[in-house]
Write a structure and sequence with these properties.
Elements: H1 7-36, E1 51-52, E2 73-79, E3 85-89, E4 98-104, E5 109-114, E6 123-128, E7 143-146, E8 151-158, H2 166-175, E9 177-180, H3 181-185, H4 202-205, H5 210-218, H6 228-235, H7 248-275, H8 287-290, H9 294-304, E10 313-314, E11 317-318, E12 333-337, E13 348-355, E14 370-372, E15 387-392, H10 398-402, E16 406-408, E17 412-420, E18 444-447, E19 459-461, E20 469-472, H11 502-510, H12 515-535, H13 538-545, E21 567-571, H14 573-586, E22 618-620, H15 631-639, H16 656-661, H17 665-668, H18 687-693, E23 696-701, H19 704-713, H20 723-734, H21 740-745, H22 752-756, H23 782-791, E24 794-797, H24 801-812, H25 845-865, H26 881-887, H27 912-919, E25 926-929, E26 932-935, E27 938-939, E28 963-974, H28 975-987, H29 991-995, H30 1000-1020, H31 1024-1032, E29 1041-1047, H32 1070-1077, E30 1094-1096, H33 1100-1104, E31 1121-1130, E32 1134-1137, E33 1187-1190, E34 1193-1194, E35 1197-1198, E36 1203-1206, E37 1211-1222
Parallel strand pairs: 6-7, 12-18, 15-16, 22-23, 23-24, 32-33
Antiparallel strand pairs: 1-2, 2-8, 3-6, 3-9, 4-5, 4-8, 10-17, 11-17, 12-15, 13-14, 13-17, 19-20, 21-28, 25-26, 26-27, 28-37, 29-31, 30-36, 31-37, 33-36, 34-35
Helix pairs in contact: 1-5, 1-7, 1-9, 7-9, 11-32, 23-25, 24-25
Length: 1223
């Protein structure tokens, strides 16, 4: 409700509301133009539909100012009110830049995904609205982003490297897909309430009518806590109430307020830029970055709506030395780029020309709107390698014009140089001088803008776990240490080392502790000093007494209670190599290193044709009783890119048992290959749907008489027939001796394929026919059905099964496995199948015509892709029963119930749906553990008769090796580290003592975890030499001290994305730092799956995944030499979790209470925010668990390995093992 206000008060509020609201209304203009106004010229697509434009912007594009013409755009406006939207990104080349800029209704860039942030490996990303609490509902997502407004815009930029690159850009854009969460999961969707959208455009938002648009939009946006007073102030005029109207009483004040707002814009933004007080880099970013400086947000929307945050791209604007804009109608300009300048951006740079008034691209005769780095090869270079770019209204001469170095300019007042993806790996700020002494009027020579250096080094990954980036060395590309003033890390300064040695490596790691830990360290030091003062000289004696004796088998003989200051690395290769090799073998034989298909599950070779292409957006037209097992080919094609699947399991339950339960599409299938409407049931298609959605329809056809008899024997299959009609069918045929002929003649049965090809149901009931209409057996659908048949991307014939499978792979690629050649029908190949005399002369005439047309189409495809020489398919045809048996990829034969087999066969997840149905347990807890399926923690041999699972962790997808060869074993004899470890070990209570402090439920839970650990480690004692070795270590069993694996990168390790060498020398590597300073949990990233801490594994193959990659990208991992530690780890009583614990810094208490501060940590990559984890969060003084154990199922997703996390000095790196990765 508006209040009575004076004209001055209304003017003040109007000015404030205009500055605040103009960017919001400009954003609404785009929403309305792109997603609401279907008849408008700028309309792209409805809400939650992604639209791509495989072209670059031209002067005809007038909705967004200062557009980018280097990167074809894709757009999606997301309505997040009812449910999240999932964005899928295809894998692409490492040297291609792309980005998804996520923008809320305030125009904040609240997140990015793309080359800089998430890499080019592809993935699934979920965007949620402000009120969503449902998590991903089991969908596997690589990262989740929360928008503070219920509507969000994603602007997608994909680098175009030249005209010849346009087709590749189209392929990439086709791989960008958007789904609501329900559509992604194949469930019924949620509908948000309808909205009546008011019309808006740029002409309106420059007038007082803007306040009415703002009033509407603010009613859709939740009030941010920091803006409550501001929004309350707007309500005094009724803005944000939903009822605001411009009237005679307020129009004058509104106009004056707008005038005041533009005056502030001119003073702060325009003059600020001219004076060097404001840069474009300050105008775009998150709410936290802009700090509610609304005039800067206003300036960003005016200067360039949807400008990138400075981490993603940098926009310096050139002006004259006196602050005046460039004007090519009066002057001509040159920009000289030195050889160094040409390589300034990590992705690319461009010089784009905009009209100084409209801020749109400038039309010109050359149709040239920019220069960019991909054009450099076509430009003439000077002797020193520099390139001169000309900007003028008149041609600089035919020679220079033809060299692609001239840009025709008319009324040009602003030129922009853009740096996509700053060269710093972490996107540090790049400041620039926007003008200088080189601007001198006519024929000015615009020298390249000087840059202030930011972070230049490659990431230094934590020494405690090879995980997310934690800190960065202050080192430039050439390996030089950067000056301290150039180091821009947000939380810590790194001192410039004089010499790289062990101590400096340790100092480097210590200096990378985050700010909160700095406080803890200072507090700890203060307490320690107070104790020293209180105890005086007695402290020295106590210190001597607590120095524990080093292990008796150490070679160092100088140790005494008064001296432990020794450091040595003793070579024990001759003594321990064979034993350690056995230990490695025992902890890798159950883990497949390679994604390659092994001989036991070999792929059958089919060469593709020259016309072959990848099939995407697949829609299966599945006619009943016509090639059900074709799903094994589809699922292998879409979901077996990393490993073959066993789709022959439970042939009679190929849907829910072997497919939907065992290999869920969300978890296994590559995004974009299957359409968003892909289902295995018998759902029809229409020609209109195919055109509208771009589906590639595929299907298998079967001789109608054979299909009908098969359907009869399958309980008189009547897909979609209503219960009343089916009852009549059963009663009718019961009176006629229950024959196939009766079934085939029943009204509604014949003509199934004709109806399904035209959007109808296979079986047509009376309710689907007009009253009095005679059943025509599909005759009325025949013409359209034949048209649809011609549009199908693939047609196969069940009677020629193997040849059909060969044709599919000849056309679209992919591996052929034996499971695809197993047909569940009674007869295969050239056999006639059922005796058709049982139909008593009945012929399904319409479907026979369609079958004949399908057969002709199949033969045409054969001729085109296979030809007359069928030998190209000989490898999979005419095989003997013995050959088929030998080739069959069977989980049963390899002793698998779930997980991945040693041959590379993927046996999927436990069939939860089937198990719950079989045992009538709707709330059963079904999990896969050690290759067996457990129901409520009990193995059920009645489900499967198989055993011995294997696994491959997701972090090892890069590996091509299968085993290890131990090369060298050293023992780390470090007195200070050992003393610290042994002293802390004593502070951990014996396990039994800790268990007595728990409730019975927690005791039972913890004992099960301890039994799992015991089982794993006792299994190693099967080898006598390993048992002797473990026994010699005198591990403290009472405190659950174990020997565990930890991998860290050594010298020569490369960045997994760029291939850049991260650690050029041993002395700068995490391995060396661990040897010198031990593990330090303070360096662990709180963004790890289980929070901060030092991570260990009970499998060497898991630790190997974090030991670094050393070969060049694309060369695989064979032959690499890596390092891992065999470490003493005191686990004590572990807390076992089945959900991620991101942001955690210490274990919960023995009653399961987690630290209260976690409640406010909502920025999580894994699982749900802490407030939604259903665990108690409080401040308590209870004793705590000693460690964390991550189980095999985390956040509903199966993990291949357990992980163990400890804190402080609960671990000691006793043995360092160098090994080779082998076939």
């Amino acid at each position: 409700m508006a209040m009575e206000l004076s004209p001055e008060e209304m003017r003040s509020i109007a000015k404030e509301a205009f500055v605040y609201g103009w960017p919001i209304c400009e954003n609404y203009n785009t929403l309305y133009a792109y997603a609401i106004d279907v008849d408008g010229p700028a309309y792209k697509a409805p809400m939650n539909h992604l639209h791509s434009e495989a072209r670059v912007f031209t002067p005809e594009d007038k909705v967004v100012v200062t557009p980018n013409s280097d990167t074809p755009y894709s757009f999606i406006w997301m309505d997040l009110r009812a449910e999240p939207v999932l964005l899928t990104v295809p894998k692409m080349e490492e040297d291609r830049y792309f980005s998804f800029q996520l923008i809320d209704m305030y125009t904040h860039n609240f997140a990015y995904l793309g080359t800089r942030c998430t890499g080019n490996q592809g993935g699934v990303y979920m965007v949620t609205g402000p009120n969503w609490t449902g998590g991903s509902d089991g969908a596997h997502v690589d990262q989740e982003y929360t928008c503070e407004t219920p509507f969000a815009l994603a602007i997608v930029r994909t680098q175009l490297k030249g005209p010849e690159d346009l087709e590749r850009v189209k392929e990439i854009q086709h791989g960008y897909q958007a789904y609501t969460l329900s559509a992604f999961l194949g469930k019924l969707g949620h509908e948000a309430s309808a909205i009546t959208w008011p019309k808006s455009n740029k002409a309106l938002t420059g007038t007082v009518k803007m306040f009415e648009i703002l009033d509407f939009v603010l009613c859709l946006l939740p009030v941010h806590p920091s803006e409550q007073d501001l929004r309350d102030n707007f309500l005094k005029m009724g803005i944000g109430s939903g009822t605001f109207q411009v009237s005679e009483a307020n129009q004058s004040a509104l106009e004056l307020g707008i005038k005041d707002a533009w005056a502030e814009y001119d003073e702060v933004i325009e003059q600020g830029i001219a004076r060097g007080l404001v840069t474009s880099a300050e105008l775009f970013g998150t709410r936290g970055f802009l700090k509610n400086q609304y005039i800067k947000r206003f300036g960003g929307a005016k200067v360039g709506l949807y400008g990138n945050s400075r981490e993603e791209a940098f926009y310096p604007f050139y002006k004259m030395a006196d602050g005046q804009p460039l004007d090519a109608s009066k002057s001509s300009y040159q920009l000289v780029l030195s050889k160094e300048d040409q390589e300034i951006a990590r992705a690319f740079w461009s010089l784009t020309m905009y009209d100084g008034i409209t801020q749109l691209l400038v039309p010109n005769a050359l149709q040239r709107y920019l220069f960019n780095s991909p054009m450099l090869p076509s430009m003439r270079q000077a002797e020193d390698g520099s390139v001169t770019l000309h900007v003028s209204a008149a041609s600089p001469g035919p020679e220079k014009e033809s060299e692609a170095g001239w840009k025709h300019a008319g009324r040009v007042q602003t030129a922009m140089k853009k740096l996509e993806a700053p060269s710093e790996e972490t996107g540090a700020t790049i400041a620039a001088s926007f003008w200088g002494e080189n601007f001198r009027g006519q024929q000015d020579e615009l020298r390249h803008l000087p840059l202030l250096r930011g972070e230049k080094g490659a990431p230094l990954w934590t020494a405690s776990a090879f995980r997310d980036e934690v800190g960065h060395m202050a080192m430039d590309r050439e390996g030089r240490w950067a000056a301290e003033e150039d180091w821009l890390h947000p939380s810590a300064k790194v001192k410039k080392p004089e010499n790289i040695d062990c101590d400096n490596a340790v100092d480097l790691l210590k200096n990378m502790v985050d700010e909160e830990r700095h406080f803890e360290l200072l507090l700890g030091v203060g307490l320690a000093l107070a104790i020293l003062v209180a105890l005086g000289s007695s402290c020295f004696i106590v210190g001597l007494k607590v120095k524990p004796r080093a292990p008796s088998y150490w070679s160092n003989r100088t140790w005494s209670p008064f001296h432990n200051d020794f450091e040595a690395e003793v070579d024990v290769t001759m003594e321990l190599r064979d034993t350690v090799q056995q230990l490695f073998d025992m902890t890798t034989k159950k883990a497949l290193m390679s994604n390659a298909h092994a001989a036991g599950c070999r792929s059958l070779h089919v060469e593709v044709t020259e016309k072959a292409h990848e099939l995407r957006n697949i829609r299966w037209l599945h006619f009943p009783k016509a090639g059900t097992s074709f799903i094994s080919t589809i699922w292998n094609y879409a979901c077996a890119r990393k490993a073959p699947l066993d789709l022959a399991i439970g042939k009679t339950h190929v849907y829910d048992f072997a497919l939907m339960s065992r290999y869920p599409s969300v978890q296994y299938c590559e995004p974009g290959v299957l359409s968003d409407r892909f289902i295995t049931q018998h759902q029809a298609v229409t020609l209109h749907e195919v055109k509208q959605r771009g589906w590639n329809v595929i299907g298998m056809f079967r001789k109608p008489s054979q299909r009908l008899i098969s359907a009869f024997h399958n309980s008189m299959h009547t897909s979609w027939l209503c219960e009343e009609d089916r009852h009549e069918l059963v009663e009718t045929c019961a009176q006629q001796n229950h024959t196939p002929a009766c079934y085939a003649r029943f009204p509604g049965i014949a003509g199934c394929t004709a109806r399904m090809l035209t959007g109808g149901r296979c079986a047509q009931g009376r309710m689907e026919r007009e009253e009095g209409e005679v059943f025509d057996a599909g005759a009325s659908s025949l013409s359209q059905a034949l048209q649809m048949l011609k549009k199908m991307a693939f047609v196969g014939m069940t009677e020629q099964w193997d040849l059909s499978i060969c044709l599919f792979h000849r056309m679209f690629g992919g591996n052929v496995s034996a499971s695809q050649l197993v047909d569940i029908h009674t007869f295969r190949g050239d056999h006639e199948g059922y005796d058709e005399s049982v139909l008593e002369g009945f012929v399904d005439h319409v479907d026979e015509q369609i079958y004949e047309a399908a057969s002709r189409r199949f033969n045409q495809l054969l001729q085109e892709h296979v030809g007359s020489d069928l030998s190209v398919c000989g490898g999979i045809m005419k095989r003997s029963e013995e050959e088929e048996k030998a080739d069959t990829c069977s989980c049963e034969s390899q002793g698998m119930e779930c997980g991945r087999a040693p041959s590379g066969l993927e046996c999927g997840t436990c069939p939860t749906i089937r198990i719950k149905e079989m045992h009538n347990m709707s709330d059963a807890d079904v999990q896969c553990d050690a290759g067996k399926c457990f129901v409520n923690s009990q193995h059920r041999p009645d489900i499967f008769a198989w055993s011995d699972a294997m696994g491959l962790g997701r972090d090892g997808a890069w590996a091509t090796h299968k085993s290890f060869r131990v090369l060298k074993v050293t023992r780390i004899e470090n007195g200070p580290l050992w003393s610290a470890y042994a002293q802390l070990r004593k502070t951990i209570s014996p396990v039994e003592a800790t268990l007595k402090k728990m409730s019975k439920d927690w005791q039972d839970w913890t004992r099960r975890s301890l039994e799992v650990i015991d089982t794993v480690h006792e299994g190693r004692n099967a080898s006598g030499s390993i048992k002797t070795f473990i026994k010699s270590l005198n591990l403290d069993e009472r405190r659950n001290e174990r020997l565990m694996f930890h991998g860290s990168p050594g010298a020569g390790a490369r960045h997994p994305g760029t291939g850049q060498v991260l650690f050029p020398s041993q002395e700068t590597s995490p391995v060396y730092a661990i040897k010198c300073a031990g593990f330090d949990d303070r360096l662990g990233s709180v963004k790890g799956m289980y929070g901060s801490g030092t991570y260990f594994a009970d499998m060497a193959s898991k630790a190997d995944q974090y030991a670094g990659q050393y070969n060049q990208n694309g060369q695989g991992s064979l032959g690499e030499r890596a390092t891992m530690f065999l470490s003493r780890v005191t686990l004590g009583c572990p807390y076992t979790t089945n959900q991620s614990l991101e942001q955690l810094r210490r274990p919960p208490c023995l009653q399961g209470h987690f630290d209260l501060n976690l409640f406010w940590n909502e920025d999580v990559m894994y699982g749900r925010p802490w407030k939604d984890k259903a665990v108690p969060l409080c401040i308590c003084s209870h004793e705590r668990f000693d460690s964390i154990m991550g189980d095999f199922f985390i956040d509903g997703q199966k993990k291949m390995y357990r992980e163990f996390i400890v804190y402080d000095r609960q671990c000691y790196p006793e043995f360092c093992v160098t090994y080779e990765r082998c076939p």
